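Hello K.,

You asked for the raw outputs rather than the summary table, so here they are, unedited. I folded two proteins back to back in the same session to keep the settings identical. This is the first:
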Amino acid sequence: MITITSLRKGFGARQLFRGADLRIGARDRLALVGPNGSGKTTLFEMIIGLQEPDDGSITVTRGARFGYLPQATDELRGRSIIAEVRSAAPAMAEVGHRLDVLTNELAEVTDPAERDTLIREHANLQERFETLGGYSVEAEAREICAGLGFDDADLDKPTESLSGGWMMRVALAKILVSAPDALLLDEPTNHLDLESVRWLEAFLKQFEGAVLLISHDRDFMNGFANRVVEVDDGLLAAYAGNYEAFVAQREMRALQAEAAAANLKRRTDQLQLFINRFRYKKTKASQVQSKIKLVERLGTVDVPETRRRAMNVAFPPAPRSGRVVIELENVGFSYGDKRVYTSLDFAIERGQKVALVGPNGAGKSTLLKLLAGALQPQDGDRRLGHNVSVGYFAQHQIEALDPQKRVIEELESAVAAGVFVKSRDLLGRFLFSGDDINKRVSVLSGGERSRLAMAKILVSKKNFLCLDEPTNHLDIWSRDALEDALEDYDGALVLITHDRHLIRSIADVIAEVRDGVVRAFPGTYDDYLEKIGEEVLVTAPAARTTTTTAAKERRRASAAERQATTRHRNALRRVEAELETVHDQMRAMEERMADPGFYTSEGDVPGFMRAYSDAKERIGRLEAEWDALTERG
């Protein structure tokens, strides 16, 4: 379907492609990978004709139709969501629109003759609508919208009411409805939640045309790709299989190339030794010339670079917090008339790494904001544990970066008091090198802004991280680096992500958010999937067993355990509250003692000093009790 031959493309002195070749078949499932800035999006734009190659050619089968989803889309205005999606099938959409107009006119017309004319036209249009497959397209459009997270009740809302992320979903739905011969999708999962990602993966598996995908989501590529093409040093290197197969093959190619290069070096070293030894001997002149020509013919072996430049991230040791990091008790929250939570109880403990999952609109982002303190409960309590400091990473945090500041200034504005940071070294670990650190924030790419926002969290030394899609805009190598850092992070964290690989790698608790209820599942993401799979199977009344004595005993034991946990938490809260009170008293005493006039006053100085000594002893006892409670778990 698409043949790329000797492709060359550059911008100024920077060459993106230098003689690249590739053939893409009509049923290929192709994932295009490479570091940010390597030319992946430029390649897509050349395929669909938005850019021209400097040299070489891109040949497309005559009549082939492409559906292209860029990373950003123009705002779509003037239609409802469903009408906008239906418009991707132009002939059907025009007839459907006329049918809607006639239906409205029929409801208002009073003249019998005019009404008969409208009825005949309506019947003719309806027949044409059915012939064009209008009703099946309508059903398919609604099914695709549902898969991408839209509620059916919201499909008649105007597109102007949507945020940028939801507008991208509309653009994706239009492309899928248009049923092109090839889909070109540039980071399609960036604006989707986890369930929508899984739906899109299943849709692409069944799609009858070719799929060309730019993605940094390992699991997504593993789910449907049958070829991986890497943009590597200006060339296009194709590998059979999914992303895992690509990694293995690439490593094998590198090992083979290294072995071939080592063998070649041994051979050329031997030849060079002979040349150097007999260069000036007349009797060996012909042999020397022969070996010089042989060295030239042998040439060199290119060894592929197996390690890409990526972030070198390591979070500093998290300050020790109380056992319970944060607790929401009896929390209620609404957006206007829409109730999200009623009497929500949820807690996160020290060291836990929690992934929030669930359908779109269930309240995951609201819960994360409540935990981070970006939203305050309208009912109930939000309580931070002892010595807890919160770091919050979300899209609006990235947008909140000061566009007028330079990169190094923006980082240094976040450095916590008493923390010494080598700003240039730290920014280098986040891939800001040389003059990059003096760039204005306004000129940074999405990936660069994400890295800068993450660097700001790093220097603030937080022991509770709330992360909303932290891997968006990062390439695979930088995602791997961030994943390693989060695995090693010794504080508590809670995150929302559509990256299943990240969830599998770091989460030890899955919190499912559904219909205003949050259920915690200790264990891995695969444990959670297995558990909910069992629950789906056990749905019919016939599948339920009668209550046994053993089951009652388990419930009693569970109730006793919950009571013990509640008593333990209450004891911790009491100790932490007393510690804060006594620390406040001591700080007030120390301020008085710092005043030289205190010691010459007529007050009871000895009594004051005894009270200060008692407060110190009390703090020691409370800290010992706190340590014992936290060690007990």
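The second followed immediately with the same parameters:
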Amino acid sequence: MHAYRTHTCAQLRASDVGQTVRLSGWVHRRRDHGGVLFVDLRDHYGLVQIVADADSDALKLLETIRAESVVTIDGVVEARGADAKNPNLATGDIEVRAQAVTVQSAAAELPMPVAGEAEYPEDIRLKYRYLDLRRERIHKNIVLRSNVIASIRQRMIGQGFTEFQTPILTASSPEGARDYLVPSRVHPGKFYALPQAPQMFKQLLMVAGFDRYFQIAPCFRDEDARADRSPGEFYQLDFEMSFVTQDDVFAAIEPVLHGIFEEFADFDGKGRTVSPLPFRRIPYKESMLKYGNDKPDLRNPILISDVSDHFVGSGFGRFASIVEGGDVVRAIPAPGTAEKSRKFFDDMNSWAQSEGFAGLGYATRKGGEFGGPIAKNHGEAGMAAIAEALGLGPDDGVFFAAGKVEQAARLAGLARTRVADQLGLIDPKKFEFCWIVDFPMFEWHEDEKKIDFSHNPFSMPQGELEALETKDPLDILAYQYDIVCNGIELSSGAIRNHKPEIMYKAFEIAGYSQAEVDTNFPGMIGAFKFGAPPHGGSAPGIDRIVMLLADEPNIREVIVFPMTQKAEDLLMNAPAPATPKQLRELGIRVVDAAKS
């Protein structure tokens, strides 16, 4: 017999009744029934019930050991009685009557229990992450992550992609988020940077003649945490393709994403559906108008409308003056709110103010009759025209966001989400994908009073060099795109600018000289001068994909060893001060931060 186990804890079935077996695992839970002790034994694969009674030498030892001790148990498989079977457990038809127990490792008193799903403070969970990872939900999430990555690899190879690894120690990038710098011992005073993404390397692979590249790439950015963004590091499905249009990129990656989400849609028995292929494409300008942002949750049926024209010269002076001053009014329907109290609408206004906005106007409607302050000022005919334009039903209310275009769009987008949440309109059993396309190439940077890149400076402008030379920069669109699922951006991508003369001109418009381009991007601009194919790609985030599939609200729940929101590793005590010897070897002196 094997030293530790003949079976895993999830393997035994009714067909094994009568066998003598050996199992090893953690003591998950104990239940003392007066002379009979039931122990749930757990390993990576699942649970099995162990029974020890007064006739067994195992009873006294099992009574004394703590939960999460590691034990090996010899015993005989027995069938459970009909009323004792557990249909929720793979091994629920049997139990193992213990004959002998060996303690492999006794557990000390636990700082947090493993059995159950009670919430515990982040610092406790992350300091003792190895215990947290034993909990069923987190354990399943991490296994899901591994299975998702394995499936992605198979699907990408099936699409003709080849996996390559790109450098981890590289040069600092002047664009994007803050870099993590790594000092060089052999080159004192000089620094490597950890890659924010393999962007330049994957483009150089295309220049080198490799046609379809991918990797599950680690990326490092010194940026703050969010619910859907891990501080410090993350992984992405990085890919690039040569001799492709935007349509070709979509056709290559859509089946991979659709297949992954279909394969794991029933994770944890949730039985969700995935939007059909091809994924919907929404121009950036349309997305900002109808959804109030560039990462719309299409499970939400509410659409925002611009109703500015309805208030020109109207009796509602406040909105009339806003519109006549060049600003806008956006309307957000609130379907089926006839039975909602005035408090529902007032609370929405208070919420908008708590978010830093001046407020959120509204009109109620019941049985076709309008109510509320805006309806009173705008009049029955004016409100009827708005209702007809928006397609409102006789019991649908409406909220109004007014102000500058960007501000009104943001408030309308947030209000659209909040109204749908409050009314239960978002279907939790759907994965709704879309592409956001036709991003503007440039934007006006108000603080610096200059034109700047709005998205990715290495994207190909639509119309190429002619557009850069003849169009207003703020009217130029780019071959840039984002893939969005359920309101979460999985990645940005683009057809790349592979022509040096177009790159120089695009950067010139953004205020960079040719010399600055040559200095900041020597590898890329140099390579493009020796024959570069048209190419493009994207990089969907692995962590975000798994977070969606696991239906977790925070990305931390699908990462094995995450950092805190302050980018601290409480388990390994990082970051930590370097020793004086280490600093001397690197030629570095630590300077105290200036006091504010």
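The chain has a mean pLDDT of 94.

Happy to rerun anything if the numbers look odd on your end.

Regards,
P.
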